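Collaborator request log, item 7. Partner lab (contact: R.S.) asked for a structural prediction of DUF4386 family protein to inform their binding assays.
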Amino acid sequence: MSTTSAPTAPTTVIPTAAAHAAPGASPLRMAAGLALVAFPVLFTAGIATSPPQASDASRDYVASLGADPTLTALSAGLLHYSWVAFALGVLGIIGLVRGPRGRVVVPLAAVVSSLSAIQLSGLLLYDFFISAAANTVPLDQATTIFDTTVADPWVATWLVSGRLVGFVGIPLVVAALARAGVVSWWLLLAPVIGFASFVVPVPFAILVGMFVSTAPMIVVGVRLVQRASARVRREELAAA
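Returned to partner:
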């Protein structure tokens, strides 16, 4: 008697939505990366166009802002948008972490430096007001307005927290990313060299130093742009 068995029905695999959801390029990572690349360029341009002043005294500072309102507006605008670009772009570095190292310090560095940059960008508005005051009232009165404003506890707090990004924020971001293995620890030399330019009596030393100190963000921005591609995102999904 024949015992031929019935053919086995082929197993039907129902594809899930996740199987078809091949990730494309990330526009957010791309935007964050480009913002960080733009930051040193805008910042250096803002420093380069800062109106020259005779000394660090308040009176000379106010006089310099009022001497050329157009140049003042250009410089303040460039500096403002440089910090806006940094504040938005630096939050994207959280997505660069691919292991247990840096899972805490990188988000912390991103949030702290972003908040500091936001504080600093808002302070650029008073350059426009001081420039207008210097051309509206006598210089002594304009200087009094400036001194009274910066002595206010709220403004003083904004100044202190804003300046943190220049002296601490960028090195903090670089150190956090180096701890996570995203960038090299050697990048920390850039802010050190940049800050040293303040004591070098060479023409344009400060301008070059300011670019060098912020240049690590170009490296970080390029990393983000590279991670924005669809291929890299597929590899990340496969490794997850």
